[in-house]
User: What shape does this take?
Amino acid sequence: MFKGSLPALVTPFANGQLDLETLKKLVDWHADQGSHGLVPVGTTGESPTLTHAEHDLVVETVVAQAAGRFPVIAGAGSNNTAETVRLVEAAKTAGADAALVVTPYYNKPTQAGLVAHFTAAADVGLPIIIYNIPGRSSVDMSVATMAELAQHPMIIGVKDATGDLARVPQQRLSCGKDFVQLSGEDATAMGFNAHGGVGCISVTANVAPKLCAQMQEATLNGDYAQALEITDTLMPLHIAIFKEPGLIGAKYGMSKLGLCTDDVRLPHVGLTDGTKALIDDAMKFAGLID
Assistant: This one.
């Protein structure tokens, strides 16, 4: 169920408030563009600046609008285990197909702490995808710990944002071939799949969903020549979007397409003119704008 291009969906705002009508339109647009699923209220969805009520409402809205057309993996991570469990329970109640749970940030738990945290989340009864992003959370889940967690029937995969492609075959050998490995890094998504991954939870796919979906489909079909050609087309956009925090770049690119505003919540601020120009050029290079 979980494979291909899975956009890490932005949360649109209007005058600082949730713009649910635009959110619904984005869900429909991604369905039309060929996205293979959606991941609302991750960090790209600005979950750190949403209230709990807003977080739950975004998940409910996306699940309802998706209406079974593709899977929805709800962001449900926190550095507080009790809060994580509540978020997973809310995602389950909303009808999400899985929850994305990040390794707890800032408090830097031990590997034993990670096992306890993710086991508590998985015991809710909704499929869990581990989000391993040591660059943001300051804790790296070891392959051995992931293999231990993979024995839980509800812990089904990982969003790997380590940037280490050698992890993919290591996790494949340790966690099993059916353990779903999704890239958390756009620029290496093709190589990730070549090493045994099956998809990408993508920031760039907010701006170029069709191209990202086509690249993923090419890799899953074993057509790496086509995947390389699409990757070359997308690479300037990957680089430009992440010149500053990726969610800001994604929202700016989407605003150029008339999909939503580029409004973000503090502490994020709008892009510099230089980064805007880079994104404009990259979107032109990819044929997204004239």
Observations:
- Residues 4-221 form a domain with the TIM Barrel fold (CATH 3.20.20.70).
- The CA atoms of residues 41 and 75 lie 5 Å apart.
- The radius of gyration is 18 Å.
- Residues 224-241 form the longest helix (18 residues).
